[in-house]
């Protein structure tokens, strides 16, 4: 029979709080990891569960991958747990400056996905900004046209007032308007 660990044992082993272990467990269960429970409904962790949680913590803390992305990665059937071993030779990626830095394939793929997501978000926001600018420009043009019409009407009124002021007293009194 496989040894199972209580949440308290796992928190001590991983040096995390009970709340953090629960958060990790819920996230991993949501992504398909099965954690057995005792007859009281409390989680019991297998060596495999602990290995997955360690990988989640490693990717999140050491590789700056979001918990959601890390949970998805470590629960996938093709996840390579050996990336946590420091003895594994890592593929290299050349940066724009020409220097070579080691990156795991999973991390590079995650970063690429995040970049693509951000590019899509930027594209959507740019489209919305363009729409907003178009609306603002149209409204400004409408206001400009309204101001021009009002200025023309004021000019006509001024001309009428000037013409009225040039009429004599008796003309004003007996004019038919």
Low-confidence stretches: 87-103
Number of helices: 6
> What is the CA-atom radius of gyration, in angstroms?
36 Å
Mean pLDDT across residues: 85
Tell me the β content: 5-15%
The helix content is 55-70%
CA-CA gap between termini = 110 Å
Largest sheet: 2 strands, antiparallel
Let me know the number of strands. Answer: 4
Sum up the overall morphology in one term.
rod-shaped
Structural class: mainly alpha
Order of helices and strands: HHEEHHEEHH
Query: How do the strands of the widest beta sheet line up side by side?
Result: 1-2
Structure at a glance:
The chain is mainly alpha-helical and 177 residues long. It is built from 6 helices and 4 strands; from the N terminus they run ααββααββαα.
What does this entry look like structurally?
By secondary structure, this protein is mainly α. 64% of the residues lie in helices and 6% in strands. It has helices spanning 7-14, 18-30, 47-62, 67-74, 105-166, 169-174; strands at 36-37, 43-44, 92-94, 100-102. The strands form 2 sheets. The protein has a two-stranded antiparallel sheet. It has a two-stranded antiparallel sheet with strand order 3-4. Helix 3 (47-62) crosses helix 4. The chain is rod-shaped and about 120 Å long. Mean pLDDT is 85; it is low at 87-103.
SSE inventory with pairings:
Blueprint: H1 7-14, H2 18-30, E1 36-37, E2 43-44, H3 47-62, H4 67-74, E3 92-94, E4 100-102, H5 105-166, H6 169-174
Antiparallel strand pairs: 1-2, 3-4
């Amino acid at each position: 029979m496989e040894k199972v660990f209580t949440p308290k044992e796992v928190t001590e082993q991983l040096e995390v709080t009970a709340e953090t272990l629960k958060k990790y467990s819920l996230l991993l269960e949501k992504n398909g990891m099965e954690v057995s429970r005792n007859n009281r409904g409390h989680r019991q962790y297998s060596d495999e569960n602990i290995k997955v949680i360690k990988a989640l913590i490693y990717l999140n803390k050491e590789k700056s991958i979001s918990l959601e992305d890390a949970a998805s990665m470590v629960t996938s059937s093709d996840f390579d747990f050996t990336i946590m071993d420091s003895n594994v030779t890592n593929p290299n990626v050349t940066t724009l400056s020409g220097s070579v830095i080691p990156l795991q394939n999973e991390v590079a793929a995650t970063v690429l996905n995040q970049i693509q997501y951000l590019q899509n978000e930027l594209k959507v926001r740019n489209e919305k900004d363009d729409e907003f600018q178009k609306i603002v420009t149209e409204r400004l043009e409408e206001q400009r046209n309204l101001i021009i019409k009002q200025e023309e009407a004021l000019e006509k009124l001024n001309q009428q007032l000037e013409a009225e002021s040039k009429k004599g007293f008796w003309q004003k009194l007996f004019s038919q308007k």
